[in-house]
Specification:
Layout: H1 2-24, E1 35-40, E2 43-48, E3 54-56, H2 59-67, E4 74-77, H3 90-93, E5 97-101, E6 104-105, H4 107-112, E7 117-121, H5 122-125, H6 129-135, E8 138-141, H7 148-158, H8 162-183, E9 191-196, E10 201-204, H9 209-217, E11 235-238, E12 250-255, H10 258-268, H11 271-274, H12 277-280, E13 284-286, H13 289-294, H14 298-312
Parallel strand pairs: 3-4, 3-7, 4-5, 7-8, 9-12, 12-13
Antiparallel strand pairs: 1-2, 5-6, 9-10, 10-11
Length: about 325
């Protein structure tokens, strides 16, 4: 009887031990199945603590992901720009699958990639949000460009890289301020930003991505590009006949796609452009559109600082 009681006690203890293990040990996959709640432009979403298969649907998202050491499994492309940010190097882009364009994401291609997180923009993809959310947890930022720093921090949080994002942004801002300080007369140097589009010419204001970066250095802007009388201070349009309004102490010029580049060549080959004081002084510089315009992230921002140092430090 004593032996039987001992056996029953041992079996009971073993059963309790197994039950306890079953309650405390994570089920298969839950080690990576922990989630965090992210509040964003479309509400609140539970996302993986450490997402492994990320799809990004705007150009700032790919800059953010790569800057934070995350290589997306899929990314949308800008309509006229047929590639992803080449300033990160081809090796960083290898293996990323195309999932449509910014305004028309390819839902089938996204589904096939089995993402565990989708990053997008309410400004561009609001009508696709429900369908995207059915595929994977989806986080949207509200606007594009003007809120690029806030977007960077939100996306960094969604990627599980919140502190790294804060550090990178702080490093960029310190670098911009230091560069402007070294110039001495930064505020008196008026930087003009001109972008050729397929059907129009734009002058970029203080609330555009590149305008914000230039502003972070303390550099000045031509009065025409302060857009003081306009509610939207991101950009304004100008005709080829009024290209004189693009003048500044230094001009940075980009073109969005091949058709825009052809228009750029036509206008900048004309007399009105060639007679601009900055052009005559050799202070008009063609720079990368994907850096100055579509990058919209801390990686691109640092590349803009590279250009400013290259052309203004001399």
């Amino acid at each position: 009887m004593r032996r039987l009681a001992a056996a029953l006690t041992a079996a009971l203890a073993l059963g309790v031990g197994l039950t306890a293990c079953g309650e405390s040990d994570p089920a298969p996959g839950t080690a990576t199945g922990e989630t965090r709640e992210i509040t964003h432009a479309m509400g609140t979403t539970k996302v993986p603590a450490e997402p492994k298969r990320v799809v990004v649907l705007d150009t700032d998202k790919i800059d953010t992901a790569l800057s934070l050491g995350v290589t997306p499994v899929g990314a949308a492309v800008a309509g006229q720009a047929k590639s992803w940010p080449t300033y990160f190097g081809a090796d960083k882009l290898a293996g990323i699958k195309e999932v449509g364009v910014l305004t028309e994401p390819d839902l089938e291609a996204i589904t096939a990639l089995k993402p565990d997180l989708i990053l997008g923009s309410k400004f561009r993809q609001e009508k696709f949000y429900d369908e995207l959310s059915a595929i994977a947890p989806t986080v949207f930022t509200e606007k594009v460009g003007i809120t690029w720093k806030e977007n960077f921090l939100l996306d960094g949080k969604a990627l599980g890289k919140e502190q790294q994002a804060k550090d990178l942004l702080a490093q960029y801002e310190a670098r911009a301020k230091e560069f402007g300080g070294k110039l001495g007369d930064a505020a008196n140097r008026k930087v003009s930003i001109v972008r050729f589009m397929p059907t129009e010419i734009r002058l970029y204001g203080p609330d555009s991505f590149s305008g914000i970066v230039v502003g972070d250095t303390g550099l000045g802007r031509p009065e025409r590009q302060l857009l003081a009388s306009k509610e939207d201070k991101r950009m304004d349009r100008v005709s080829p006949e009024r290209i004189g309004e693009a003048d500044g102490d230094v001009i940075f010029v980009t073109a969005y796609g091949e058709k825009a580049a052809a228009e750029q060549a036509k206008v900048t080959g004309g007399t009105l452009w060639k007679n601009l004081p900055a052009v005559k002084a050799g202070k008009a510089h063609v720079v990368s559109d994907e850096i100055w315009m579509t990058g919209i992230g801390v990686g691109a921002a640092n590349k803009i600082l590279d250009d400013l140092e290259k052309y203004l430090s001399a």
